From TrEMBL:
Keywords: Nucleus. The keyword Amino-acid biosynthesis does not apply. GO terms for cellular component: nucleolus. It comes from Cryptolaemus montrouzieri. This is Active regulator of SIRT1. It is found in: Nucleus, Nucleolus.
Length: 130
């Protein structure tokens, strides 16, 4: 086969592939355009607002803080749980370190045996046979 015949055959095959690719691209573009149009509608909205109108809709941080403080004050009035100083310090320590509090190991008591020194001496004498 000559190279010209091979080129012509490849062009025919490529045309079919190009048509299919273009068809897919057009289909994808239409889908993207529809999605983009819906997205733009959502972004724009039906009503245009000025900056001053937007500021009225958003609450400033100071007002949010005041509301939260009022809620905390109400909670304080409602709760009657008494917390001793040790638990308060643990809560503060936990909030500062942001880690759970490790329990402090208790001092180990000296191990006591049931047997006295006299019992050990008697056992030793019996065992050794003296």
């Amino acid at each position: 086969m000559s190279s010209s015949i091979v080129k012509q055959a490849l062009e025919i095959v490529d045309r079919d592939d190009l048509r299919q690719q273009r068809y897919r691209q057009k289909k994808e573009k239409k889908a993207k355009d529809v999605l983009a149009a819906k997205h733009l509608k959502d972004l724009h909205g039906s009503k245009k607002l000025t900056i001053s109108e937007l500021r009225k809709t958003f609450t400033p941080k100071e007002e949010i803080y005041e509301k939260n403080l009022k809620k905390l004050a109400l909670l304080r009035k409602i709760t009657t749980v008494q917390i001793d100083e040790e638990i308060r310090n643990q809560i503060i320590e936990r909030s500062v370190t942001k880690r759970p509090i490790t329990s402090k190991s208790k001092k180990k008591k000296d191990k006591q045996t049931v047997f006295t020194e006299e019992d050990f001496k008697k056992f030793e004498e019996e065992y050794t046979g003296e």
